[in-house]
Structure formats: structure tokens, C-alpha cells
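Good morning C.,

I know you're traveling, so I'll keep this short. The sequence:
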Amino acid sequence: MFFCALALIAGVANAQDSIPTQAEGQMEQMEAVAEATNVRKDSSNNFKRVKLDGIAAVVGDYVILDSDIEKTLIDLKSQGASAEDISHCSLLGKLMEDRLYANQAVQDSILVSDDEVNATGDRQLQSLVQQIGSMEKVLKYYKKEDEASFREELYKINKLRMLSERMQQDIIKEIEITPEEVRQFFNKIPVDERPVFGAELEIAQITKEPEPSEEEKQKVIDKLNQIKADVEDNDASFSVKAILYSQDPGSKSKGGFYSITKDTGFDKTFKDVAFSLKEGEVSEPFETIFGYHIIYIEKIRGQELDLRHILIQPEISQDVLEEAKQELDSIRQKIINNEFTFAEAALNFSDEKETKFDGGLLRNPQDFSSRFELTKMDPTLYNQVQGLKDNEITHPVLEQDPRGGAPKYKILKITNRFDEHVADFAKDYTKIQELALTEKKYNAIKKWMDEHIKDTYISVNDDNKDCEFANNWIKE
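The C-alpha cells, ready to paste straight into the viewer:
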């Protein structure tokens, strides 16, 4: 239960764009609801009191309607959540937390610009249209009368969510953990309640990345120039060309489409070229680690670009691939013959700059440590090393780049094994440090929540006052 509580903070700094369905209430909605629920009678007394919607709670300047809770439950069910694990009271408590954060963010002048909110809504709508087929189908699916009203609702939802996230990030942004705090955190955990960490591996690799010939590179450049000319001179569709010729698996089916900002995690060269272009312009062919590209700028919206691109990779001949494989076979044999160590071979022969200076040691992308827990490993990497014994080295393995880059050969070795074990302070310091920092952030947010509940106007409808909230929403 102790570590379950720590998980409550896990999503604070990593919230992603999603499409929530709960509506954002405003104070004027209270009046509208009150009017809608008034008793209206004529001389024949045929009219009855009808409750169209109810106010579940008020937090600062935000009203939460009963319908907001119902919509949130529907949204969670659509995402696969089990209704048995979700109660009306827990949902209401979560919605009140979001509005407390947002209410304080406004007071603290934590800003979310209209451009940011609108850009988020645009991305969501674009994604929905691509998934469902057309804007008409999207509006029908979400039972909206027109695009304008749907955008307005998305704006309200996203504005509240983004304010809430910014406030939470602001609360914990300067929180750090000292080694002494980590030690105290670990020591206060009863021995029989200490976490158990699964079996882990440390893995090193040496790679050879075959290079295409200059002739093959020029063929690709000529092809991209031909496509560019056809688009510019003959009014050909860039989208259709991307579907036909692009080798980017992430955008090919969408006609090469991406929506990016300068903060988007794309290749720097790609972004530099994209942001140097005007709306409607097609770039010259240029090279990144993934191959050769051309970019077409479809729309510029402030600091955000809607673009389409075509990626073509020069072919690498089978002879070049075979040469890389044979070179790795030779390196492998020399390591086995003790002519040099695996780490020395990685430093001198590996083409992978990220690992060669660290003995070929791979880093876990989840926490950047050198350990990979077996139950959480990438399936491809797991399959490459699952049968490997201590001090064994794999034969050369051909690996395709999941990001769309050129294929490469590699050899791998397990450099260390850690069996499933109860947490050990020395061996598992990084993991324990992470848990300690999570608890510290959780406590900071809990303290902030308690203080601001006292200082904020909060009202809970009588129907909800029997709820057992995690926070003291019902003030004495």
C-alpha cells in the first residue's frame, strides 16, 4: 500500500495531449442550471419540476456539474478502464483537484496562451479526422452540431487541463533529493515491506553501420528533385507522392503529414530546414541520419508548422552488408581469443557513438541506468539476448532501425546479471533514489493541496457530502 501511494505522483510531469470529455463549468452555468430547474406553472398546473442537470461541487471560480462526472466515467470506460474500480466519489474528487490547481494557476499568473490551447485542439482534431475519416464523421461520433462548437468545448477542456498541469509542475519543479534523504527513506521502510526488484541484465553491444555508395545517394537526390519539380511545375499532389514514395513508416499513410513546433523531438537538421521555409514552399533535398528528405510546408500557425515530407533512403548493397557482418565476425573471434576485451573492441571498432566510449554499454531509455529488467525489456532486445550465457557473445545480428534509419549489424554480450532480489541500498541506489524523490514530490503536492483547500471557496452538494474523499473537501 505504501508504494501504491507513491504512484499517485507519477503522471504529474509527463501528462500528454489527450481528448478528455468532461466539460469545464463556469460560474454563469450555476445561474443557467438554477433557471432550468425552476418550477414553472400555468393556470392548468400541468407543468412539473424537471432537473436538467445538477451542481455537484464548486471550487473557486469553477463549477462541476453532475454531467461532468458522468462524461468522465464514459470517457474512462471508452479507454478500457474497469467501472468496478471507479466510484462517483473518486471521480468527483479528481475533478475537484483539477479545478483547484487551475483556479490557483490563474491567481498565480501561470499562463497558458490561446495559441497553445488552440494548437492542442487542432492536433486533436487532425488526429480524430485521420482515425475516423472526416470531420463530419467526427462530429457525428461525438454528437456535436458543428465544428465551431466542438472546438469551443475542446478549448475549455484543454485550457483547464493545461492550467492544472502547469500548476502541478510548478509545485514540484524545484524539488530535489539528497543522498541523506534517500538513506533515511530506505531505512524507514520495514525490512519485510521493502520492494522486490525483478531480474535485470546489463548489456553491451558493438555495431557496424553500413554506408551506401555515393552513386546510390545521388540516385535518391535525383528522385527527390524529380518529385519536387513535378509538384512545383505540374501541380502534382505532394500528399499522393508521399504515399507512393516515402519510406517513413510514421507518416507515409498520412501523406507525409506532421504537425511540429521547435520543441518537437525531431532531428535538428529536419527542424532547421522546416522552419526556414515559407508556406507553400518545397525544400531542396537534404540529408539526416534517416536518409534524404524533401519538405512541403502546408500551413504556418504561429510557432507551429503543418508539413508534409518524403523520406527516401539510399539502398545499401548486399555486398556492403555482408562486409559489415564479416568484420563483426572477425572482431567477435578476436575477443574470444583474448586479443582484446569487448570494451576495447567497442571503443576502437563500434560505429555507435552513444555507447562506444562506455564499453558498448546500453542505457535503459526509461531511467538511463545500465540495467534492463527482464519483464520490462524491449521485446526485440530480449529476443537477441535471451539465450545468452555468461561471457558468450552473439553472432552478428541484423537490426532494422525502428525510426526508419539504415539497417545495421551488431554483436551483443551480457556484462552483468542481477537476480530477483529484495531492494539493497548499495546495489539499487538509483531505483531507491527514484522512489524517495517520488515520495517527496507526493508529500509536497499533498501539503499544497491541504493548504489551498483551506484558503479557497469550496462547496459540495448535499448529495455528495457522504463521500469519503482523499482530501478534506467538506470543511467543518
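Safe travels,
E.
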